[in-house]
Design a protein that fits this description.
The complex is a heterodimer of chains A (344) and B (808). Chain A has 344 residues and is α+β, with helices and mostly antiparallel strands. Helix content of chain A is 41%, strand content 19%. Chain B has 808 residues and is of the alpha+beta class. In chain B, the strands form eleven sheets. In chain B, strands 3, 4, 5, 6, 7, 10 and 11 form a seven-stranded antiparallel β-sheet that branches. A seven-stranded mixed β-sheet of chain B has the order 28-31-32-38-37-36-35, sandwiched between helices. A five-stranded mixed β-sheet of chain B has the order 13-16-19-20-21. Classes of the chains: A alpha+beta (344), B alpha+beta (808). Bound molecules: zinc ion (ZN). Zinc ion is lined by residues 265, 267-268, 272-273, 275-276, 280 of chain A.
């Protein structure tokens, strides 16, 4: 009986060994381990055995069953792994083919520039104010120390709607409006981005519509060195930490003293090149200390309050920063232009 | 203002600096130098030659054969200039000379005759054509007789001069004169200034006996001075003066005209020379013109005047338009012998009105408009008389006949060192302030830190304390200002809720695949009426148009952003960019007045334009053209993110496809539309199938619910049921959905349309809509009975309202 079991074992193991599919393997399992299989058959004849032999053969039979079952499981795992491998091989794709496109949009370059500047000034404690694009002559000119007949009104030929209404020529009226609206004449610390309009024929450097950002800080003891410090922060943030600024005297009716701010030319590092017209400096914005007349008209006592103001053109900043060569690009909305500046 | 550095050197020493260094110093201290140019490109080896003889070339009619003494030798030169003559002193480029444009002069044979050099015109020496005196414009330049042969032409003609161009701001009219620039440079460099000495030999004859002056318009003509100059010999002005004028951009004419121009540039004071014998009387009367009065100005144009214009008259008729241009009748000419010289102060705005009305902007009108220095008016007249006697052989009569009510007083401005330092953030000492005032040549009285400054009349821009802050700051140097940050109150700064929300919406739409545009607010009259949302249209009484547009294209303020966006889309289509997905947030301008007199309402709108393919993935054969539901899907997702409930109603709106347009409502309020552009309009814009939306953005900001809240995540399973209903094809799915939601009760959490079918197996005129219903109770597991009850209630209600049947 012992020999019979051992023969069955080697016979089964050989069949397991040669099995090449899961079905074949299942056949072996049913044939040898099933209820009608030869091992069961052998065990049925155990009654004839002596009491000493019975446990020995029983143990041997269980061992044989175990060995066959283990061999079958092992073989099964092998076949399954082989099959999976084959399947995976068949499932291979060409990963170099292009993916399914995702629609991608983005902000306009002017929005990116404006928001970058907004965020910088928010960090310095400024608020953002907005104002109407159709302005009264009073807020656009008079409240900014530009009375009727003032020669400086020539500098900015305007789009009038009626004698008293015009498209604002700068965002400066928002200064006056904000100060006027301030109850108890508290300090004002704001910037105002927005669209402005001037009677210019559209060409590479002129646009009848463009963008401006106005800044204003009015408080007790505001110093011109504060203006210089804030503008320096701005210049380094927008154009790089290694940029230098310089202020040079200029004239605006609503500030006194008035200055223009230049940054050192990035192209030549201040040595002089064609971009900076060989001066080493590039003009960025106008600024100054708020004119006492402007403070007075807005209800602030110029003996108690002082302030600084600045105004800049995001188009110009974008043109310098990204080398945009024609201001009309900002308003044609050519997707080939817009998409260059879609970024996170 | 063009400043000749050679001229400037007569007043201040600038030799210690290169032109570039000087320009930099001037720019940093107050006046922007916009350019540094050489007067002429460099020439070498060009000298004065004496034409000893000049004969016809034996083989050429138009050429002359000249023997020219150039000092050390006599050269045979062939010259084609029509004005060449024996006895002239001319500019000779010797063999080996290099003229501007790298033009090298060599010995050559012309028609068989040897020529050893070239006799030059001013243009050939690099002078711009427009500055060359007329008599030399088409020939060679002739030097004064006393010029020495062999002398270097570069120096004689001032060809090595450097011209710096000043960009003057309106407040710095003081620098519209060489003396003003000299004061500025003297202050910046801290060097002494040399002023011209004006003195006159007194004649026996007195001007008063020859002319009277009466000013009727005293408020606009506070000073009028008349000088009488006799026996003038008209001729060329001295070479040095012609050189300076050309360098400053003025073409020399004759000595009288040149002298008035020279003094204009030197003093900043315009003068006018009348031919005394053609003046028409012995009295000068200054008055406002009569309405319709006429004058022929010296450009030979007849001008019709109004009562706004100030005129100089001879008591009968106008002889000059004050400060702008003289009359033709009394113009100085070659035959003039006696001159009435006017030095006057005319009101800037009055001059401006006339120069603007007749488009006659000149060096003179420009200076009057900006305001001349009261203290230089008479002095400039004296200076001109002195030069006339010196360079035009004239006799200047004694005295000046004048009307004088001019205010010569100097403005006093008090400054304190501490206040200046407070304003600038500096720590400048009293001594430095005093030093700065001295450099500026400002008179002042000092008492400790208090300075009472008398602003010189040439600096009309200095009126208030802040003006002096600027003077101190710029001479102290802006480079020396410290960098500080504001010390005052520490307000937080930041975006308002609406500003933050606007950014959220932008980022959302960009994430959804849309590119932001910025279009013009000014559009054409025609386009301004297109694609206006109904609720906007209802509020428009009139469009807002420019009084004087530059073009019809940009004449009217927009009431919809879409037309200009369609223009931009068409621009892309024309350049093979067929897939466009745009959005823009911007203002529209709505006036509720018949005739615009108040500021229009500026309303923010959110607009979008979509055309072409929404998705293209060629190798997987995936293609999704933009359609109505792409556009609507974007809006639905946006509104969901803003937690705004919006309903869509089929609508007919001008400019949109009548069957593919929905009007949007938040509650009962109309807030915009989404739809396809009408095919006719698509064609007009050269667009293919295009979808647009336009939404009241102000209202979205107003009603959005952005309060953070937490909805419990359900712990109990949901149950779903599908229901396919057959209804008339005209019944909108949205209406059925609304009834299902209502009838289904509170357990229905979501309803989705998953199929719409029409055709085979369905009766003509019917359609089937299939919905998935999702039931859920956050507190417990639902029972079949509850769901079934709701389901039956729905069936009953849709049957009642739409005659809907379950699809078999
Ligand atoms: Zn450079």
């Amino acid at each position: 009986m012992k020999e019979q079991l051992q023969a069955l074992e080697s016979e089964a193991l050989a069949k397991v060994e040669t099995a090449s599919s899961l079905q074949e393997l299942q056949g072996v399992r049913v044939a040898y381990l099933g209820k009608k299989g030869p091992i069961t058959e052998v065990l049925r004849g155990m009654g004839k055995l002596s009491a000493e032999e019975r446990p020995v053969i029983g143990e041997l039979a269980n061992k044989v069953r175990g060995n066959i079952a283990a061999a079958i499981d092992e073989k099964k795992a092998g076949i399954e792994a082989e099959q999976l491998e084959k399947q995976l091989e068949e499932e291979q794709i060409d990963v170099t083919l292009p993916g399914r496109p995702v629609a991608v949009g983005g902000p306009h370059l002017l929005t990116s520039i404006v928001e970058e500047i907004e965020d910088l000034f928010i960090g310095l404690g400024f608020e953002i104010r907005e104002g109407p694009e159709v302005e009264t002559d009073y807020f656009n000119f008079e409240a900014l120390n530009l009375p009727k007949g003032h020669p400086a009104r020539d500098m900015q030929d305007s789009f009038y709607i009626t004698e008293d209404l015009l498209l604002r020529t700068h965002t400066s009226p928002v200064q006056a409006r904000t100060m006027n609206a301030m109850e108890n004449k508290q300090p004002v610390k704001m910037i105002c981005p927005g669209k402005v309009y001037r009677r210019d024929t559209d060409d590479a450097t002129h646009s009848h519509q463009f963008t401006q950002i106005e800044g204003l800080y009015v408080d007790k003891n505001v110093r011109m060195s504060d203006l210089k410090g804030v503008l320096d922060r701005f210049a380094k943030h927008m154009f790089g930490e290694d940029r230098e600024i310089r202020l040079r005297p200029s004239f605006f009716p609503f500030t006194e003293p008035s200055v223009e701010m230049d940054i050192s030319c990035k192209m030549c590092n201040g040595k002089g090149c064609s971009v900076c017209k060989r001066t080493g400096w590039i003009e960025i914005l106008g600024a100054g200390m708020v004119h006492p007349r402007v403070l007075e008209m807005a209800g602030y006592d110029p003996k108690v309050y002082s302030g600084f103001a600045f105004g800049m053109g995001p188009e110009r900043i974008a043109m310098l920063k990204y080398g945009v060569d024609d201001i009309r690009h900002f308003y044609t909305n050519d997707l080939r232009f817009l998409k260059q500046y879609h970024k996170a | 203002m063009f400043v000749s550095l050679n001229w400037l050197k007569n007043y201040v020493d600038i030799d210690q600096l290169s032109p570039e260094e000087l320009a930099e110093r001037i720019t940093k201290s107050g006046i922007e130098v916009e350019g540094i140019e050489r007067f002429a490109q460099a020439s070498t080896n060009v000298v004065v030659g004496y034409v000893e003889s000049c004969e016809k070339h034996p083989n050429a009619d138009k050429l002359n054969l000249c023997q020219v003494n150039v000092g050390e030798e006599t050269l045979q030169i062939i010259c084609g200039a029509p004005n060449i003559a024996q006895g002239q002193k001319v500019a000779v480029a010797k063999p080996g000379a290099v003229l501007p444009g790298n033009f090298k002069i060599k010995r050559a044979k012309l028609r068989g005759v040897e020529s050893n050099g070239m006799i030059c015109s001013l243009q050939e020496l690099g002078v711009e054509e427009k500055y060359v005196p007329k008599e030399y414009a088409s020939g060679i330049f002739v030097f004064p007789e006393d010029t020495e042969a062999g002398a270097d032409v570069t120096e004689l003609l001032n060809l090595d001069d450097i011209i710096i161009e000043l960009g003057l701001t309106p407040n710095r009219s003081d620098a519209l004169s060489m003396l003003g620039v000299a004061y500025e440079v003297a202050a910046i460099l801290d060097v002494p200034i040399r002023l011209p000495q004006t003195s006159l030999r007194s004649a026996d004859d007195v001007a008063e006996d020859h002319v009277t002056v009466r000013v009727e318009a005293q408020d606009v003509n506070p000073y009028y001075g008349a000088f009488i100059v006799k026996d003038v010999k008209i001729g060329p002005s001295p070479l040095w003066m012609r050189n300076y004028l050309m360098a400053a951009g003025i073409r020399p004419i004759n000595n009288v005209v040149d002298i008035t121009n020279y003094v204009l540039l030197e003093y900043g004071q315009p003068l006018h020379a009348f031919d005394y014998d053609k003046f028409g009387s012995n009295e000068v009367v200054v008055r406002m013109a009569d309405e319709g009065e006429k004058i022929v100005t010296l450009d030979d144009v007849e001008r019709t005047l109004t009562a706004e214009h100030l005129v100089i008259t001879n008591g009968k008729e106008p002889v000059a338009l004050a400060g702008v241009m003289g009359g033709a009748d009394s113009e100085v000419s070659d035959t003039t012998t006696n001159v009435l010289l006017e030095a006057a102060y005319f009101d800037g705005q009055t001059v401006r009105k006339a120069s603007k009305a007749f488009d006659l902007r000149s060096e003179a009108s420009n200076r009057f408009e900006k305001g001349v220095d009261p203290n230089r008016v008479r002095e400039a007249g004296v200076r001109a008389c002195q030069l006339l006697s010196e360079y035009a052989g004239a006799t200047v009569l004694s005295g000046v006949v004048e009307h004088d009510q001019l205010d010569y007083s100097e403005k006093e401005v008090t400054i304190w060192t501490s206040t200046i330092n407070d304003r600038l953030g500096t720590s400048i000492s009293d001594e430095e302030i005093a030093d700065i005032l001295r450099k500026l040549h400002f008179n002042f009285k000092q008492d400790g830190e208090t300075f009472i400054v008398s602003a010189p009349t040439r600096r009309q821009d200095i009126v208030i304390f802040e003006d002096m802050v600027e003077e101190v700051a710029r001479i102290h140097g802006y480079d020396n200002l410290p960098f500080t940050l504001p010390q005052g109150g520490s307000q937080a700064g930041g975006l308002t809720k609406n500003q933050a929300l606007k950014r959220h919406v932008k980022r959302f739409l960009e994430g959804a695949g849309l590119s932001e545009t910025v279009t013009y607010s000014l559009t054409s009259k025609e386009r301004s009426g297109q694609l206006v949302s109904p609720e906007v249209k209802d509020t428009i009484v009139s469009t807002v148009s420019l009084a004087m547009p530059m073009s019809e294209e940009h004449s009217t303020l927009r009431v919809s952003i879409l037309p200009e966006m369609l223009n931009s889309a068409a621009y892309n289509l024309a350049r093979k960019q067929a897939d466009v997905a745009y959005y823009e947030i911007g203002s529209i301008f709505v006036s509720g007045e018949e005739e615009v007199s108040k500021q229009p309402d500026e309303k923010l709108r959110l607009a979008g334009v979509l055309t072409g393919q929404w998705l293209t993935h060629p190798w997987q054969q995936e293609k999704k053209p933009v359609d109505f539901f792409v556009a609507k899907g974007i809006l639905e997702a946006l509104f969901a993110s803003l937690k705004v409930d919006v309903t869509y109603k089929q609508a007919k709106i001008d400019g949109l496809h009548p069957g593919r347009t929905a009007q949007l409502f938040a509650g009962d309020r109309a807030i915009g539309f989404v739809g396809q552009v009408h095919p006719a309009m698509q064609k007009a814009y050269d667009l293919k199938e295009t979808y647009v939306f336009d939404v009241d953005f102000d209202y979205l900001l107003e009603i959005h619910h952005n309060e953070p809240s937490f909805a419990v995540i359900p712990r109990f399973p949901s149950v779903s049921r599908d229901i396919a209903l057959v209804v008339d094809e005209t019944v909108p799915a949205g209406a059925v959905l609304a009834v299902i939601a209502e009838a289904g009760g509170s357990l229905v959490k979501d309803i989705q349309v998953f199929d719409v079918y029409q055709g085979e197996h369905l009766e003509e005129g019917k359609k089937s809509i299939a919905f998935s219903l999702f039931y859920q109770d956050p507190e417990r597991t639902l029972t079949d009975e509850e769901v079934e009850a709701s389901y039956q209630a729905i069936l009953a209600e849709v049957a009642k309202q739409f005659g809907a049947e379950l699809r078999g």
